[in-house]
Amino acid sequence: MTITVTFIRHGESEDNLKGIWAGWKDAPLSDLGKKQAAAAAEFFSNTKFDTIYASPLLRANTTAQAIHGRQQAPFPSFIVTPNIREQHFGVAEGTSFAYIPTEHDTLDELFAQGIYPVLYHRDEKFPGAESLNDLALRAEKAIMECVIPHLQSEEVAHIAMVSHGLCISELIAALLRLDPDSRRDTSYKGLLNTAWTRATVSIKEVANFSEGLPPLDVQVTHVNVAGHLDGITPFTSDSTSENSEARKFFGGGGALSDERQKM
Fold this sequence. Notes:
By secondary structure, the protein is α/β, with parallel strands linked by helices. It has eight helices and eight strands.
């Protein structure tokens, strides 16, 4: 039995237009984001989803609702789960994005000055925030909650998970960790707004396997597909350095430094 999982990033939010940390900060879609969500909904209108899982945050939830609204009857289940929210940035939420920290200052010194730079290690985090490792653990819970039950039901299923750039990268990594033969050297960061990535999941045939979850066969078949956005003019007036770097961090704004991509 094989199921299909399609991961979809939300449309552009109003906070994407600002150079700020925006994880759980709940901004709605921008005007462009609404057009992107409508384009995604039109594209997926002929794709039969059995269940759509959505982040409760407005930018993802509104995108998911648009996709759900264009599905054909019988409509898929629509389930909101907090486990696929974006990474939480604690006290940095809503503050200015800083890509390059002040030379010689420690992180604690930067935090004391209200400066919140990109963190380069998976266990680093802002006060009251999640690290990437924390997000990875939450992503594992989301996979167990949203994907595995469909696999265990022995019914062909196609599910959608409408989430956020950093969270989706950890969701895919969590799914691949359940396949002992999967490649672990590919980054799934840098997803465009409403771009989709897809994986097929099945149980490996393992002789004499009797306890727990058997090893899975996970095949990533599509990555960062955004052809449905052709003809939609992107917003280009947010050209400040902070906005540009924030877009690179959250996805869809160009390649990050090699160090960040390897995280």
